[in-house]
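User: Hi! I'm a student and our assignment asks us to look at how structure tokens line up with a sequence. Could you show me two examples?

Assistant: Happy to help. In each example below, the sequence comes first and the structure tokens follow. Example one:
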Amino acid sequence: MERLIALRDAKRTQIEDYFGTIQNQVINLAGSTTVIEALDNLRESAGSYRQELFQPDIEKFRSELAGYYSNDFMPAYQKSNLGERVGLDSLMSGLDDDTIALQYQYIKHNSHPLGQ
């Protein structure tokens, strides 16, 4: 019993140290001027991406993206999260046209399989 308690305490310390390290990394990155500039540039680029697609059919993108989330993503999500469900309608209704265009191109049409 003493060995199990010692092992438990050692593992707890390892996990706490790991999360402490991750927290320090996040804090350092959040204050980095390089990261802040990159996020500003991303925001500007994301806002103009849809126009760069030469008048995309957003409703087609929205429909196909909803199908991807329903048929591919949700089953994998539920399997990884003990059957927890996410409302697809509420998820999709919160996405503006720019977000739909970006997710369609970089998630739906990603050449890598889900999870890669």
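Example two works the same way, sequence first and then tokens:
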Amino acid sequence: MPDKVVDASVLAAFAFAESRADEPRDLMADANLFAPEILPYELASLALKKSRRLPSLRFDTAMRLQTALTLDVELIHIAARDLLSAALQTGLTIYDAAYLQTARLLDCPLVTFDAKLARQARNFTQA
């Protein structure tokens, strides 16, 4: 099975049944999945925003978050100084730089729906 780094945008689409919810299953199929340690916090932050926006769906959102957090994704530690360097180098946020650095560290593809992050990941693979 190939290794892939998956970001919060892909897992959120899958977990919270967003507009692109059908795509993540194929993108993640038959792969060993990895993400930086921030992934659970990013997913929880998204769940909070959804819960505040649609209070009547709080329970459903919490259950979907729990399901997402049980997916087989290995969390990887990335040093803060490496995140700072990558963010300064690429113009990404620290959070997005964490996904890019994880892909660099593991030398594997990054699966994301974020256009800017995807562009930086492509630049990395072409270098």
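Here is something you could point out in your write-up. The chain has a mean pLDDT of 91.
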